[in-house]
Design goal:
This protein is of the alpha+beta class. It is built from eleven helices and eleven strands. It has a five-stranded antiparallel β-sheet with strand order 6-5-4-3-7. Strands 9-10-8-11 form a four-stranded antiparallel β-sheet. A two-stranded antiparallel ribbon has the order 1-2. The longest helix has 19 residues. The mean pLDDT is about 80.
Length: about 325
């Protein structure tokens, strides 16, 4: 590569790092005179790279948004960070509708990686393990995702066509508070204007989204992520469960996170430190109860079941099975 061409690419990398760079600064970094910097800028503009001139005492050059993505200069560490982000996003299921976009972007970067960086990446990926399986979720449409994000930022109502888990289709006007990524899915939370209540919607179930005239005020209170978690914990299911558990918030949350259950103080312990053991009321909703007895056993904390009676029966049955197994050490193993 000829030295002038290399300096032009170095100039592009400097501009991509952000901010306005003075001619003197660029000349010093490139080891050239000011008029040569201006000539290099002209080369970039000829290549349709959107460089703009900034006048004034602190003027110089900066990179402006263009009609297409200009050549992107990444350092070794930056390229590695981008590729790891793509791998993690694909594993978590947080990709765009075009499933191949993640793979083609990864391939383009890997194709131009220096050999020593490619080897480092391969070594890392071979050593990297995930505790869950790769995401198999339906991803949202990119256009819908960006439309709703714009509505969130500018506090604009948005009309959506939504299909719920029962296959029922509806058109709603949403005052969207925020977009949340959780457990491999994208969600939007906000106020459903038709019913006047907060709701959370899966983005992959939204078939169309368009911004409407007008604006709204985002209410003071929990952030979008907390609203989504609270919505999950209070969703309508077959069983409503109320417990009292003696322990710390951290001990209980280790087995019953916010997405599963709501916690509140019980009795006179209100206002105590989170690390203080005390009685806490736990409320949750569940479609099935059979998973709860083992969770309560794993807490290893005193608890009281307020409702339902069916859960109390399941806990007693589990305790009987454990007692029976512990009392028979010579039981023969089942044959395959």
């Amino acid at each position: 590569m000829a030295r002038p061409t290399g300096r032009v690419l170095t100039l592009l990398e400097l501009l991509q790092s952000g901010g306005t760079r003075t001619v003197a600064e660029l000349a010093d970094r490139l080891g050239v005179e000011g008029r040569t910097v201006r000539r290099y800028v002209d080369h970039l503009i000829d290549l349709d790279v959107p460089v703009e001139s900034v006048r004034g005492r602190y003027g110089g050059y900066r990179l402006a948004p263009g009609y297409r993505l200009p050549p992107l200069m990444l350092s070794d560490d930056e390229a590695l960070a981008v590729l790891l982000g793509l791998v993690a996003g694909r594993r978590a299921g947080l990709t765009t509708t075009e499933a191949t976009a993640n793979e083609t972007a990864s391939a383009k970067i890997r194709r131009v990686l220096p050999k020593h960086i490619a080897r480092r990446l391969d070594t890392l990926l071979e050593a990297l393990a995930f505790t869950d399986q790769p995401g198999e979720f339906d991803a949202p449409d990119t256009g819908i995702l960006l439309t709703i994000a714009d509505a969130v930022r500018h506090h604009r109502p948005v009309s959506i066509r939504y299909t719920d888990r029962d296959g029922q289709r509806s058109e709603r006007t949403l005052h969207a508070y925020g977009i949340v990524a959780h457990a491999g899915r994208w969600y939007v939370t906000g106020r459903d204007a038709r019913i006047g209540e907060d709701r959370t919607f899966r983005l992959d179930r939204i078939a169309d989204a368009r911004t409407l005239p007008g604006s709204f005020e985002t209410p003071v209170g929990p952030g979008a992520a907390q609203r989504v978690l609270s919505g999950f914990a209070t969703a309508e299911y077959r069983h409503e469960v109320t417990l009292r558990i003696h322990g710390t918030v951290e001990q209980i949350r280790a087995r019953l996170p916010a997405v599963v259950a709501n916690l509140e103080e019980h009795g006179s312990g209100s206002g105590e430190d989170r690390a203080t053991e005390r009685w806490l009321r736990v409320e949750l909703r569940a479609e099935r109860l059979d998973w709860l007895p083992p969770v309560l056993a794993s807490l290893d904390r005193p608890f009281v079941i307020e409702r339902p009676d069916e859960l109390r029966d399941l806990v007693i049955a589990l305790a009987d099975r454990l007692t029976s197994c512990a009392a028979e050490p010579d039981r023969e193993e089942p044959t395959s």
